[in-house]
Amino acid sequence: MNKIPLYKQIYQSIKDKILTGELRPKDRVPSEQEFMDAFMVSKITVKNALAALVDEGLVTRIQGKGTFVSANPNFLAEVPKSHTNAPSAAYYIGLIIPTMKTKVIQRLVDYIEFHVKEAGYQLVLHITRESSTEESRSVQELTNTQGVRGIIVFPTEDESYNESLLRLSLDKYPFVFIDRYLRNIDTYRITSDNWGGAYETVTNLLSEGHQQIALISPDNTNTTIEDRTHGFEKAYIDGNILIDKSLWCHVPIDILRNGDTSAYIVKFLHQHPSITAVFALTAEMARLTHHALHQEEGLNPLIELVSFDDPEIPGISHILQDEAQMALSAVKLLLEQCNGQYAPQRIEVPVQWIHA
Questions:
Q1: What is the DSSP letter of 274?
Q2: pLDDT band at 85 (very low <50, low <70, confident <90, very high)
Q3: Which of 31, 158, 286, 336 is the most buried (most CB within 10 A)?
Q4: How far is residue 91's CA from residue 174's CA, in Å, rounded to a whole number?
Q5: What are phi and psi of 61, to 5 degrees?
Q6: CA 297, CA 292: separation in Å to the nearest integer?
Q7: Over the range 8-45, which residues count as b (16 or more CB within 10 Å of their CB) and which as e?
Q8: CATH number, span 6-84
Q9: H or E element in which residue 308 lies
Q10: Strands 59-62 and 66-69
Q11: What is the DSSP letter of 28?
Q12: Rounded to whole angstroms, how far apart are CA atoms 144 and 46?
């Protein structure tokens, strides 16, 4: 199986023809459609290959007429290879995120921007606001933008199999999933050890004598929540303890979006008075649960509350993610693809249990 990205194969094919003289100065390069048919790829893949050739001065593009070999394309042969591979100020990395509301995403954006800039690129940020339609539009805009070399994608919450993301993978376009990902797609992805963090948290609670442990989280519609939920369950299985899934509260997406989450959690807690501990799978769920336990009449404020991510409330033990390492790994793997390497990897960044 050819591990070279398809856009690189097209790029190299044209470049070889120019350097060997098969395509001479001012010759017209075959059309985008011809390359799409020959390599069985999408239009964005061909555009990316042609953009790389334009950036190197090998071809010029004339709107409405096509792509032509530059009048003097051979100057690159006199320039050291290390210089021609260096990014210029006109090179960009795209970052697609679902929101800017969480501390985790805010830190990821900060660290990613730092490493992208250190590598000599500029960051182009798109926010989808958890819309798969906006996600598709962002992918299309970035892949059609001159100078964009690759994309880091934090998928939307529902993680439907967005055709635009599938196409990036099939075309071997340089991109990396961060935090969330799509299952059964062989591509680059960086996540925290969500399964391990949840497993460790629940194991700690069980060792303290808790058995009636509630799980409170957004609806189980993305890989992050799924992995944390599976880690929760495996801790019970390994402890030979019967698990009561009626104590699991996955808040539906429509409830999350219409602002009724707090009331939904309060109702759940009132319906299950046997609960002795709560594991909130996100910091937002932890904050809402903490408010309910301490402000609502009839609820027990002594229930132990723990969280995946820091809810920034004193006295709550939590799992701490390493956003700095996630960002560094994502940029590193993306740049490897931009430089022609293609060997999909899955990296799980270790997390840390912080005991309050």
A1: T
A2: very low
A3: 286
A4: 14
A5: -115, 130
A6: 9
A7: bbbbeebbebbeeeebeeeeebbebeebeeebebbbbb
A8: 1.10.10.10
A9: strand 304-308
A10: antiparallel
A11: B
A12: 10
CA dihedral over 328, 330, 335, 336, signed as positive or negative: positive
CA-wise closest residue to 156 among 117, 128, 115, 116: 128
Render the burial of 345-354: b for 16+ CB within 10 Å, e for the rest.
eebbbebeee
Tokens of residue 95, six digits: 């970052």
Give the C-alpha separation, 166 to 163, whole Å.
Answer: 5
Span 304-324, average pLDDT: 95
Structure token digits, residue 230 = 């599976």
3-state secondary structure of 215: strand
Alpha helices in 251-304, H assignment, sequence order: 253-258, 261-271, 283-295
**DSSP assigned state of 27:** P
Instruction: Give the count of beta carbons closer than 10 Å to the beta carbon of residue 219.
Output: 15
Report the candidate in 265, 283, 324, 276 with the shortest Cα–Cα distance to residue 300.
276
Please indicate whether the domains covering 6-84 and 92-192+323-350 agree at the CATH topology level: no
Q: Are strands 304-308 and 188-192 parallel, antiparallel or unpaired?
A: unpaired
Tokens read off for 234 = 């495996």
All residues at 6 or more sequence positions from 59 whose CB lies less than 8 Å from its CB, including other chains: 14, 18, 29, 50, 53, 67, 68, 69, 70, 73
Do residues 138 and 163 make contact, with C-beta atoms less than 8 angstroms apart?
Answer: no
- CATH architecture of the domain 194-320 equals 3-Layer(aba) Sandwich (3.40)
Domains of the chain by residue range? 6-84, 92-192+323-350, 194-320
DSSP label at residue 317: -
Q: What pTM was estimated for this model as a whole?
A: 0.74
For the segment 138-187, what is each residue's pLDDT rounded down to a tens digit? 999 999 888 899 999 999 876 566 788 888 888 889 999 999 888 878 89
Per-residue pLDDT tens over the stretch 74-83: 444 433 333 3
Instruction: Say how far apart CA 354 and CA 356 lie, in whole Å.
Output: 6
What's the average model confidence in pLDDT over 78-89? Answer: 42
Architecture per CATH, 92-192+323-350: 3-Layer(aba) Sandwich (3.40)
Question: Which whole-number Å values give the CA distances from 193 to 57, 99, 259, 321, in the listed order?
Answer: 44, 21, 29, 8
